Amino acid sequence: MKKIVLYSENEEIKNAFEMQCKAFNSKLIFIGDKEMNLEVHKVFELDKNGENIHLLADTYALFDDFTKDDFALFFEGFAYIDEVIKINHTENNSHWKLEKLFVETKKEHLLYAKIMQLQELLDYCNQLDYSGISNEKTLEYKDQVLHAFMLLYGKEINEEELDESIRLLQKQIVKIDNKLM
Asked: 99: Cβ–Cβ under 8 A, 6 or more apart, which residues?
């Protein structure tokens, strides 16, 4: 049977998950801070819901036995999809403490958001009008775009470089949009 472990203090999200789980014939287990020291595989063995105490502000949903297609069906039309940090139970995370899994997933979630922001900036850069901008400034700008591209598609992503690249591109875009170069 498909199972979902939900960590959330938001009653609307809890209700939405309850409705989706009924429709999807899945077991839903609510957990709180008391369960954070359990290993991931152990939370799926819980017979009853945990305490309703949540010190973390985010909502986490941990899925067991869900395929990519199952995810798509489960979240189709789901109003709170962007408010939930979704995690799939895997062999790799099965013996992690729940707290560690949530912390690491949150870090990845934030890094991914920055990657997406930089990708959107690069997409926008492809549409900019360079007319009226000096060749020297255009080359400087294109070097920053190339650096951002290499950062995204390199082997390792450095978060500090990512932040700096986002800042520099945003600054250059404003200049180009306003023809201030």
From this structure: 36, 37
